[in-house]
Amino acid sequence: MRITVRYFAGARAAAGEEERVLELPLGATVRDALSAIRADAPTGLPRVLESASYLVNGVAVRDQGVALNEGAELDVLPPFAGG
Predict the structure, then answer these.
(1) How far is it, in rounded angstroms, from Cα 65 to Cα 47?
(2) Sign of the Cα pseudo-torsion (4, 64, 34, 51, in order)
(3) Sequence-ordered list of residues with C-beta below 8 angstroms from that of 23, at least 6 positions apart, any chain
(4) Is residue 78 a contact partner of residue 55, using CB atoms and an 8 Å limit?
(5) In this structure, is residue 11 part of a structural domain?
(6) pTM over 0.70
(7) Is 82 contained in some domain?
C-alpha cells in the first residue's frame, strides 16, 4: 500500500524534502512507516523523529501501533518553540 509522509518545519529541513511516498505492506503501522523512513534517512532526521508528534489523516496519534490504510497521510511535526 502507498502512504504519503509529509514533513513540517524542522522535520522538513532534516529530511531535505517536503514529502515522500512510501510503499508499505498491508497492515503496516505508524511504527513500520517510521522504521522505513529511518532506513534511508539523512543523518539528522532520526533524532527529529524521536521527539516528533504524528498525525494520521489529520488526527493526532500517540500509539505508533496504529494501523495505516492505503492512501493515508502521515504528518511529522517536530517540537515547536514558543508560548
Answers:
(1) 20
(2) positive
(3) 1, 2
(4) no
(5) yes
(6) yes
(7) no
